[in-house]
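Same chain as my last thread, 458 residues:
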Amino acid sequence: MSRLPGRLRPWFRRLPVVARLVLAVAVTMSLVLAGTAGLVYWRVQTALDRQLNDDLTTYRHSLDRAVRTGQELPPGPSGSLQQVLDAQGRVLVSSAALRTQSLLTPAELGAAVRGATVRRDVGSLLPITSDTLRLQAARVTVGGEGRIVIAAVRRGHRDEALRELLAQLALASGLTLIAASYVGYRTARAALRPVERYRAGAAGLADGAQHLRLDVPADRDDEITRLGHTLNHMLDRLAASAERERRFVADASHELRTPLTLMRAELDVALHRPRSAGELTETLRSVDTEVQRLIDLSNALLDLEELGTTQHLSRAPDDLADLVDTAVAPHLRTAERAGRAVTVAAAPATVDVDVRWLRPAIANLLDNALRHGSGRVGVTATVHEGGLRLCVTDEGTGFPPEFLPRAFDRFARAEASRTGEGSGLGLAFVQAVATAHGGTAHAENTGRGACVVLTLPC
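reply #2:
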């Protein structure tokens, strides 16, 4: 159907799928049946014409011999005609049915006089006409003078057989086309019935139906069934995504509400009565702290959104030891003030990663260990079989067991209250970096403290 004329394509595309399939089957079957019927008709016509030509040639040869020897013209097959002309076209001998009417046109007579064998059909197969003939004419020399001998046989039986064949082929082709179209229609309807069910289910989902899943047969494995499983998987993903978005909006609203409420409270207190310059300065510092918290939260959310696609990654070879040292350096003074040690063990290797994202991910892990853990913090980085393994450990009490399954969720915090430091996006950012690189991140308790492992292909 890709070769339809330009004016028919829009019309064809507007048809229902079943109608297009049935039309395609009908057109294809019509072409096949027409080709088959044409081949059968051609073979039968060729066989009939060969037999008719053989009889006509034999008959003309017998007439030629009779004219040369001066004998009486022999009778031919049933319904045959004979005629002998001179070079000027005058009828010398003729069958009673012809009388003096010449069977040749002037042009054919001239060709026969020049020695050509003339062959022609008189009358047509359709529409039906009487006295249909096939004739042959050739020159014969008698006593130095030329004679044109014409032999003709009737084509009635041959034409009748061909017309009967055409009628039978038309009837058989029509019935076959109707049967094929009906089977195609029933097959298309049966094949597309599950698609219609899926469409109705999707319409129900669009109307607000909850927890909708398509009814997919479990005992089949065809294209439609696989489509149903794919759509159900998509619905599961959409439901999970909608739930994550709902939780995200609720958590983000809570996180944004807290600093905004504190800022509003500080400003209300400052405006309630006249304040000294020192009190106003303290209020502004408090408001600045909350503004910075909002900025950090917004930046973290933007980073997570940007990491949602690997198109933002720009991998480049980098020295692993330098990468880890650069990420750890800003936190050494914080650890020193807290009286805690930070040890770094990085293998001498070159890794192919996006330093712009991996460096802050390492910094987030170190910041979490310093903020929520205790004792010595260890940072190890090794490369094995094309994979980078980063591990940050501390010697604290570890993660609460109930927190581990959701440690990398956005805004997830181990403490029950949300008033503590941090936004709850640090580990979510680490997991986003790992996913963008095609790796994984997981957290565990080692018995001596917490351990967060980042594994990346490099």
